[in-house]
Recover the amino acids of this structure.
């Protein structure tokens, strides 16, 4: 998959992408890890083996965005069934949904439109190649930049989750295939 506006190449996660994720996390803390990965996917400090184990889960598929051969962003599609993971397709008109998560853009590429371009490419892939009809994601309420990016891509707030046990308040956002296609045709 290519996005001409930013010359992004989207591909399934490879070892070089894992190394980029580790580099982006090198001088960070547990709070940073929780902000982009949630509270349960990874343990601090992050290791390559944790990322490999996550990518091997039967319901997950991790992707990377490359610009001029350099990994600039990563994301996960979770909640897939075995047919979607293996064949990357499902029956036409599927009512299945998946969850976009663990979206991370390199510090050097943030606020340059890369995250939005990557997200639009992933949504296109999910709706066209995988036959999904609905995508969700969860974002912390304080993450205004991410909220704006998701809204620009067409995601709407579907639920509010008050923080409990030291966790931060968050929103669940969703995007349907129909809404995404309408926005593309405008």
């Amino acid at each position: 998959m290519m996005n001409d506006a930013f010359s992004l190449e989207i591909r399934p996660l490879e070892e070089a992408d894992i190394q980029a994720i580790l580099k982006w996390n090198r001088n960070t803390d547990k709070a940073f890890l929780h902000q982009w990965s949630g509270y349960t996917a990874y343990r601090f400090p992050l290791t390559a083996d944790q990322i490999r184990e996550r990518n091997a889960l039967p319901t997950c598929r991790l992707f990377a965005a490359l610009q001029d051969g350099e990994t600039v962003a990563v994301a996960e599609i979770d909640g897939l069934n075995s047919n979607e993971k293996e064949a990357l397709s499902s029956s036409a008109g599927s009512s299945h949904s998946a969850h976009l998560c663990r979206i991370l853009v390199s510090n050097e590429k943030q606020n340059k439109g890369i995250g939005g371009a990557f997200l639009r490419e992933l949504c296109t892939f999910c709706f066209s190649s995988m036959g999904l009809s609905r995508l969700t994601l969860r974002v912390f309420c304080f993450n205004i930049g991410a909220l704006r990016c998701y809204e620009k891509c067409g995601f709407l707030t579907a639920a509010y989750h008050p923080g409990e046990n030291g966790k931060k308040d968050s929103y669940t956002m969703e995007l349907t295939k129909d809404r995404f296609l309408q926005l593309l045709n405008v």
About this structure: Residues 84-94 have pLDDT under 50 and may be disordered.
